[in-house]
Each structure stands twice: as structure tokens, then as C-alpha cells.
Backbone:
């Protein structure tokens, strides 16, 4: 992907910080519920409200999920220490966030994209979420608002922050990374990965440099990205902005910038000089987290199959490259595909059906019925079009593909019947036939399309296009064409 | 009357809990006006609670080992439905929706909460003059301070307002006022008593502990409040120790060291300054009493204790600067409105915090800032490690250590308010135990030249409260 330069002469360098809410029953440091939605300020307790005297107690499940993430990303799982990140904000009840700083639970790792490229992971650490402010009046911006409302239901929800290395080179690659990361988080049950509900949030670090240079340019961090689509737009806008600055002889200032979905631009939030001094120090109310080797091994053993392992498995079963299985795995249909292939079905036809004809789900389709269907199709009992129809029946109601085929009146057309029809059409369309026999390749393809179309019309789509082509070719050969 | 005998009389039905509470309310009535030990006296609540206990006893129930015993609670301990001010305007009117673990534990053994005691604002001070609600006076001489920051609790016990009180000790806030008011005061091992519901000052140093008129009562109260609490991650996963059982065991065979660096005097160049001669004389006399009771007493060296004060005044303010950030006007307590959220934060904190609190927030913020962290916070943590190592070395040769609890007897109000450094020196003997996380206690042992009490500090290694109480009991018996 890196060869598809977005801006000629320039290379874009992207690193992503992904925050994902962990799918625990309760909050990171207390027994209040971790639940999206609900009446404001109902999932709260002294700890998540930061009341004086309250103390955090670490949720073991959050640690387990974080370790799952670490294992899935091939990170080193290590002794970690919580730290306080100090800054004032009304929706952060203690006016500090409990996070991890110099000793994160997950150290260096990597993520493999479906195309096989590896993106480095610098760390994946635990931290708590803040509450959510709603600014009333003034268009919803804090500075112009008449007043603000704060919902602390989200306060103290466990987060994992996954920091990538600056290894991505275009928006498309960043999208592939986030998609794959989301698939991993969902697969291992760590998070529901819903960007639209804010349970997964992405900040982008973007810089640019002249093609062929290796030094990193000054980066800007872009926040407020709410979908994969806006991430792509934001990266492209920001890269363009930086290149424009550099090409006009200016410098890129290190800034935190805010993506505005409406005007499609990034806007300066604060400069490096205005950045907060978070005054990190070890959280004295918590003890270091030292997961035992036994526990890590237990979590590893219970880890479900990862997307890359699913792709690999299906690729082996189907005899294709792993990349060719990406969509099937993404749709969660690889188990079905593997089982169908194992039941003897032609792998190529199985993957084609999954990719083209099962976008809306598998419904009642089973591996056995899928395999019979593919066998009928391969044996010439059903045309591709008929197979698609029967497949839709199997998805809707299950059952036996032969019965569905019979109920539609799909029967393999007798070849002699088809030969008679082809001969009649040749006789009825002598000019077209002359074009087929005497034309160049392009003309022959065009005319073959015409005759196949005529056959299909006459048979209401029940003929097999490939057989028709064979017949046409045979007749032409007989005429010495 | 001791807490133990009150509880015995109430449990046996010999005395009603109501009569006990009435007696203490009467004592409060007669001299609280002069002493000002309390921010809030819970007269109605205490009487209602006493009546409830009496009913339960009449029904044949045993409310527990503190049945009917009034306990005064430092006003930085959260009490459900009862104002908790921390001696600060910024929390005026705040009513916690939950009880601190220690408050729950007291309730579970029949104790009666009699009031919330005054303190230096957010426990920052050594004289209880930093309270937003006015100073507490020493009941033994009302021209003098009771010490601090738990001055209200110390004064309440010394004045007979309650036989027991709870305080919190971050750098000496239980032991120093106990010494100045002539009561027993204990700082337990860090993690021995749950901090859940204690409004934090310096989280890695804070520990709740008892005040009592006797070593035995202090042991009783510590037994009740100690033990593991799942709501405090730093709580030690152990049951409360048997202290009452240790009291009669004497000090025969114990090795006790007098910490040279905390004794002062002209011939001790390596010592901290400011230890008064009369205080030193009492500590030496206490050491002789322990030797007479069969202990081996020698001088001990814990060299790095002299740096304790400096390290403490970086670590505690650093943690405080973060702990006190939440007092921002958003959710509870005082709010001073302004045009912006940040403006409201500033206006609220400017109006709500006193000078000493602001000073420490600024100190701590500075110590944690980028570029200064290593030189201040980082270095002070190294000193802390050094102190822990020095103590560990000393405890290879000794079972217990001895020092003054406070450098002087109670000083006059206003004497040190203009000089923060002079005030901070009050904690020079007590701070090392907080930095090490070790238990130590102040036991009254005679008086100084001014006739005011002197406290001797007994220090012990982590979790060795039982040994510490054995020496304390001997000192109590031998006190002049």
C-alpha cells in the first residue's frame, strides 16, 4: 500500500492511538455497572464519582481482558504500575485519571494485516474512562454553552489504549489496521468495538516527509474521529495541510488538532507549548499488577481463534492465499466455509458464494446443505443463477437443495434439447453467426454474449452459459471457422 | 472511666448506654466552649444510638466490645448523612452518602459516635490552628495548642469528652497531639487499618489510628478497627492482631534502641535540631524504666531519619496536590461561580482553601512538574527507600526503637503560625515511621519543665504492634 502515494513526492506517516472500552460487567475500580445507555448518573458510586475518601479497587476481569489483548497482539505481558495523570476537567471526577505510564501491562507487540504486513504495537495499557459532558446552548461547544450537563455513567469504565508504532503510510492502511484491531478485540471478547457508541475511539498521529527520507517529520495528533470514514478523511486532510505548509516554506507546528466532520478540516486545539503537564506519578492507592505466569498461560489457553488464524485455516482448507479469505473471515463465515469444504465442496465455488451471495448472513444454511448445493452446481445439475436462487432458499428456510431446485422446476436441461435451440438461433441470426465465426476475438466475445443471452431468454435462465459457449465453439469448428 | 470498663458495665446491664452518653455530653457542655474539640457534636444522634443499644441489651443482645462507648471521630472520616468538613470551607455542608470502613466497624461493635473533631484543614498542620472553623485549645492549658492535625481528637480524649477517639496520621498527626495532650496515640502499620472513607492527604502515608486515655483502651480500639478491608487495595490481608493479650507480657528480653538522631543535645552532631532538654530527659528516663523491667536498652543509629522531614515535605504535598484536585466546585461542597468552568474551579479553590493547604498544593505541584520530578519527587522517594533500609538494619539488632514523640511540650497558640518551617519541625520525630510504613505510638511519660505532658514514642517494625504495645504498657506503668 505504501507505493500508492497520496501526494506525489511525499510520504505520510501515521501512528494510531486506539481506546477501546473493555467488556467487563463492572467498572475498572468499583462495583458500579459498566453499561452503555441508561439514565444519566445511575451507574455511579462513591468511587466513580470521585467522592472524598473513596478508593479504587482494581477489577480483575479488566486485567484479564487486557492480557487477552496483549496476547492477541503478541505483546510482552509485564509487571505494571498505575499512575495518576493529573489535569482538571469537569467530567473527570477526581481531576486525575488513573492510567499506566512508564510501566504498561502490555509492552511491544505487533498486528498482522490481512495482506500480511505487520504494524508495530508500542504498548497497550489500562486506564479508566471519564464521564461525558453535554454542553447546552451555544451550538454544543463548551466555550459558548449556557451550561453543561455531566453524565458519570461512563466514568471509571475500563479502557485499553493501544498505541501503534508510526508504521502506516496511507489512510487505507490505517483503516485496515483499525478494522483488523476491532476484529481482534471482538473475537477475543475484550470489547464490542462500536465506534458509533464511542466504545472504540481513535486518535491519529500524522506527519509527512519527503519521499526517500527516513527522519520523522513533526507530527500532529488529530482527535474527535468518530468513524473509519472520518478517520480516512481526517488523515488525508491533515497530510495535505502539512505538505502545503512545507511546500510553501513553512514549518509544521506540533499540535493537537480537532477533526470537524462538518467542514472536513482539522482545527488547532492546542500547541505543544500549551500541552498539559500531566505530572504523572505512581498511584499510591493501588498496588503493582503482577500477573503470574500460570494465569497468563491459562488466559492464553482459553484464547479463541484470532482473525489471522481463521484466515490461515481457511486458506489452507481452500488452497488459496490468506488474503483471499479476508472477506469470509470478516463476515464470520469461515467456520461454515471450512466445514463446507471439509464436506467435499469445491473451495472456489464456496468462497465465491460467500463473497457474492451471502452478504446478508447465512441464516438457516448448514455446511451439509451448502456442500450438496455446490456439488449439484459443479455436476451441472444447476446453473450458477439457479444455484444462487437455491442458496437464498437455504438461507431463508434451510432444507434440502434438491427439493428447492425441484420446486423451482430447475432441472438439468438435456444437451440435445439445448443443441436444437442453439442450431435454431444460429439459423435465425445468420449475420450474428457470421460475426461469431469470422470476427476477431472481441467480436467473437460480443456475439457469444448475444447467443448466450438469447438462449437464456428462451430457457428463462435455466441453461448453463458455459455449455452454450461450448456448443457455439463446436459448431464454429465444424464449419471450419 | 476507661472504655473497657464502660463497655463491661454496659454489656452487663450495670449501666445504661444512655447514662454514659449523657455523662459525656455534660462534660462537653461544660468546657467545649473553651476547648473547641468538635466541629459537630452529635448529641441527638448519640442519645438515640444509646437508647437503641440499651433496648438491644434489654433484649439479651450483646452489641460488642465497645458497647455504649462514646468515640470522637476526626472530621476527615466520612460519616453517612453527617457533615464531613476536613476543617475546610471547601467542604462545608458536604454530607457523605457512605460511612468510612472504620466508622462501620465501630458501629458493628456497639460504639457511639459522639462528634466530629476539629483538625488542621485537610490534616495539614501540627497545631490545629489551620482549621477554617477556628483553633482547638489544649484542655490542659487552653493558652496552648493541642498539637495537630488530630488536635480535636486528642483534646476530646484529654478533656474527658470521649474515652476514645480516632485520628489520622500522615506525618505525626496522631502521635504529636497525643504527646501534647497527654493521651496515648497510635499510628498503626501502613495497611493495618482501612483508609476507605478517610479523606486522603498523603495516600502513601495516611493511616487511621486510636487515641485513648490508656494503653489498654488504645489496644482495644485498634483491634476493633484493624484487619483486612477489600475496599482498600493497600490494606494488609491479615486479621487484626491480638493486642490486649500482649499487654501483660512485659519487656523482659526485648532489645530496645534509642534513636540517637532523634534525641538532639549538644553532644550529638548527627541529630536533628530542636529537641528540648526536658523532653530528652524524659525519654532517657523512659529508657531506664524499660531497662529496669528487663529490656536491653542501647543507643541505635538510623542515620537517614534526619532527611525524613525534607523528603516528607515533598512526598506528602505531591500526593496532596493530586488528592485535593477533586475539590473543584463541580460535584460537592463550595462552588464560586465564574464565566468558565476553569474560572469556576479557580474561584472555588481560591475561596475554599486556606493558606497552608494552598502552600502544600503549590509545593506538590512543583515537585511533580516536568523537569523537576527527578530532582524533587524522585529524590525524595530515594530518601524514603534509604530510611526503610536504615530501619531494617536497625531492626536486625533491636526489637523496638525509642524517641521523643514531639520535640517540645505544648506551645502557645500563635507561636509558630508565622513560620511554616518551625511548625513543620514538630513532626521531625514522627515522620520517619510514616515514610517507612511502620507502626509507632506516643505514650505519656511525665511532664516537661512547664508541667505539660511529654510523650515517648515507641517504634516497631511493620506488623509488630503487639511487641510495641508490650513496651507501651510497661512505660505506662512506670510513668512518673
Residues:
Amino acid at each position: 500500500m505504501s507505493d500508492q502515494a497520496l501526494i506525489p513526492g511525499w510520504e505520510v506517516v501515521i501512528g494510531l492511538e486506539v481506546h477501546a472500552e473493555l467488556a467487563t460487567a463492572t467498572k475498572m475500580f468499583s462495583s458500579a455497572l459498566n453499561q452503555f445507555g441508561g439514565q444519566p448518573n445511575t451507574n455511579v458510586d462513591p468511587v466513580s464519582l470521585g467522592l472524598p475518601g473513596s478508593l479504587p479497587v482494581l477489577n480483575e476481569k479488566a486485567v484479564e481482558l487486557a492480557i487477552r489483548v496483549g496476547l492477541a497482539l503478541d505483546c510482552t505481558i509485564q509487571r505494571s504500575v498505575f499512575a495518576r495523570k493529573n489535569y482538571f476537567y469537569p467530567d473527570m471526577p477526581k481531576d486525575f485519571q488513573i492510567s499506566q505510564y512508564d510501566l504498561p501491562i502490555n509492552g511491544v507487540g505487533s498486528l498482522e494485516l490481512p495482506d500480511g504486513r505487520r504494524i508495530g504495537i508500542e504498548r497497550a495499557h489500562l486506564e479508566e474512562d471519564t464521564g461525558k459532558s453535554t454542553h447546552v446552548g451555544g451550538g454544543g461547544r463548551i466555550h459558548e454553552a449556557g451550561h453543561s450537563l455531566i453524565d458519570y455513567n461512563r466514568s471509571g469504565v475500563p479502557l485499553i489504549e493501544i498505541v501503534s508504532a508510526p508504521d502506516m503510510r496511507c489512510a487505507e492502511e490505517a483503516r485496515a489496521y483499525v478494522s483488523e484491531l476491532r476484529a481482534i478485540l471482538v473475537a477475543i471478547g475484550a470489547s464490542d468495538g462500536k465506534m458509533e457508541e464511542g466504545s472504540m475511539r481513535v486518535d491519529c498521529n500524522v506527519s509527512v516527509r519527503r519521499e526517500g527520507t527516513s527522519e520523522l517529520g513533526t507530527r500532529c495528533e488529530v482527535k474527535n474521529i468518530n468513524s473509519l470514514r472520518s478517520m480516512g478523511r481526517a488523515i488525508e486532510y491533515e497530510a495535505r495541510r502539512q505538505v502545503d505548509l512545507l511546500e510553501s516554506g513553512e514549518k509544521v507546528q506540533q499540535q493537537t488538532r480537532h477533526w470537524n466532520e462538518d467542514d472536513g478540516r482539522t482545527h488547532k486545539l492546542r500547541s505543544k507549548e500549551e500541552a498539559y503537564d500531566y505530572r504523572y506519578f505512581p498511584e499510591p492507592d493501588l498496588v503493582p499488577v503482577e500477573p503470574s505466569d500460570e494465569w497468563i498461560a491459562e488466559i492464553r489457553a482459553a484464547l479463541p481463534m484470532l482473525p489471522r488464524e481463521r484466515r490461515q485455516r481457511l486458506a489452507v482448507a481452500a488452497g488459496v492465499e490468506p488474503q483471499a479469505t479476508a472477506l469470509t473471515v470478516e463476515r464470520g463465515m469461515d467456520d461454515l466455509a471450512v466445514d463446507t469444504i471439509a464436506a467435499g465442496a469445491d473451495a472456489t465455488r464456496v468462497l465465491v458464494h460467500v463473497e457474492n451471495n451471502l452478504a446478508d448472513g447465512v441464516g438457516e444454511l448448514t455446511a451439509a446443505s451448502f456442500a450438496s448445493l455446490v456439488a449439484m452446481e459443479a455436476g451441472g445439475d444447476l446453473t450458477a443463477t439457479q444455484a444462487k436462487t437455491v442458496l437464498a432458499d437455504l438461507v431463508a428456510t434451510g432444507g434440502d437443495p434438491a427439493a428447492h431446485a425441484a420446486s423451482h422446476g430447475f432441472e438439468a436441461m438435456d444437451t440435445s434439447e439445448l443443441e436444437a435451440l442453439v442450431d435454431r438461433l444460429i439459423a435465425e441470426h445468420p449475420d450474428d453467426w457470421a460475426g461469431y465465426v469470422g470476427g476477431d476475438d472481441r467480436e467473437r466475445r460480443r456475439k457469444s454474449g448475444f447467443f448466450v443471452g438469447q438462449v437464456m431468454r428462451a430457457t428463462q435462465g435455466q441453461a448453463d452459459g458455459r455449455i452454450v459457449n461450448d456448443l457455439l465453439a463446436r459448431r464454429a469448428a465444424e464449419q471450419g471457422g | 472511666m476507661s472504655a473497657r470498663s464502660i463497655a463491661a458495665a454496659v454489656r452487663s446491664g450495670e449501666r445504661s448506654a444512655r447514662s454514659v452518653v449523657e455523662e459525656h455530653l455534660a462534660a462537653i457542655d461544660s468546657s467545649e466552649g473553651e476547648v473547641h474539640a468538635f466541629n459537630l457534636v452529635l448529641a441527638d444522634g448519640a442519645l438515640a444510638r444509646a437508647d437503641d443499644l440499651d433496648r438491644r441489651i434489654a433484649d439479651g443482645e450483646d452489641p460488642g466490645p465497645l458497647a455504649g462507648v462514646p468515640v470522637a471521630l476526626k472530621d476527615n472520616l466520612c460519616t453517612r448523612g453527617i457533615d464531613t468538613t476536613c476543617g475546610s470551607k471547601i467542604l462545608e455542608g458536604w454530607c457523605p452518602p457512605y460511612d468510612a470502613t472504620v466508622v462501620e466497624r465501630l458501629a458493628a461493635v456497639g460504639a457511639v459516635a459522639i462528634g466530629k473533631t476539629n483538625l488542621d484543614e485537610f490534616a495539614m498542620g501540627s497545631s490545629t490552628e489551620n482549621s477554617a472553623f477556628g483553633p482547638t485549645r489544649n484542655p490542659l492549658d487552653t493558652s496552648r495548642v493541642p498539637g495537630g492535625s488530630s488536635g480535636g481528637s486528642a483534646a476530646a480524649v484529654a478533656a474527658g469528652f470521649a474515652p476514645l477517639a480516632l485520628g489520622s496520621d500522615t506525618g505525626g498527626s496522631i502521635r504529636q497531639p497525643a504527646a501534647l495532650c497527654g493521651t496515648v496515640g497510635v499510628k498503626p502499620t501502613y495497611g493495618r487499618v482501612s483508609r476507605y472513607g478517610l479523606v486522603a492527604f498523603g495516600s502513601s502515608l495516611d493511616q487511621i489510628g486510636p487515641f485513648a486515655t490508656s494503653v489498654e483502651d488504645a489496644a482495644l480500639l485498634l483491634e476493633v478497627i484493624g484487619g483486612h478491608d477489600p475496599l482498600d487495595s493497600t490494606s494488609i490481608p491479615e486479621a487484626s492482631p491480638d493486642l490486649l493479650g500482649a499487654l501483660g507480657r512485659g519487656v523482659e528480653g526485648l532489645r530496645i534502641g534509642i534513636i540517637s538522631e532523634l534525641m538532639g543535645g549538644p553532644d550529638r552532631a548527627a541529630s536533628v535540631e530542636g529537641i528540648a532538654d526536658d523532653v530528652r530527659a524524659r525519654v532517657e528516663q523512659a529508657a531506664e524504666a524499660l531497662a529496669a523491667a528487663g529490656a536491653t536498652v542501647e543507643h541505635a543509629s538510623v542515620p537517614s531519619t534526619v532527611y525524613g522531614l525534607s523528603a516528607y515535605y515533598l512526598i506528602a504535598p505531591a500526593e496532596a496536590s493530586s488528592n485535593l484536585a477533586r475539590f473543584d466546585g463541580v460535584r460537592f461542597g463550595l462552588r464560586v461561580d465564574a464565566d468558565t468552568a476553569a474560572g469556576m474551579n479557580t474561584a472555588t479553590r481560591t475561596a475554599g482553601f486556606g493558606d497552608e493547604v494552598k502552600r502544600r498544593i503549590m509545593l506538590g505541584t512543583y515537585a511533580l512538574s516536568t523537569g523537576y520530578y527527578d530532582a524533587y519527587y524522585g529524590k525524595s522517594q530515594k530518601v524514603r527507600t534509604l530510611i526503610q533500609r536504615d530501619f531494617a538494619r536497625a531492626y536486625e539488632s533491636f526489637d523496638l526503637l525509642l524517641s521523643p514523640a514531639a520535640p517540645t511540650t505544648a506551645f502557645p497558640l500563635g507561636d509558630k503560625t508565622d513560620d511554616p518551617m518551625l511548625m513543620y519541625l514538630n513532626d521531625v520525630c514522627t515522620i520517619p515511621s510514616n515514610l517507612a510504613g511502620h507502626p509507632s505510638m506516643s505514650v505519656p511519660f511525665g511532664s516537661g519543665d512547664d508541667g505539660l505532658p511529654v510523650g515517648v514514642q515507641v517504634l516497631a517494625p511493620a506488623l509488630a504492634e503487639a511487641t510495641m504495645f508490650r513496651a507501651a504498657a510497661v512505660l505506662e506503668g512506670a510513668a512518673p
Observations:
- Chain A touches chain B through 31 residues (CB under 8 Å).
- The longest helix of chain A spans residues 228-247.
- Chain A has three domains: 10-300, 307-407, 415-478.
- Chain A is about 40% helix and 20% strand.
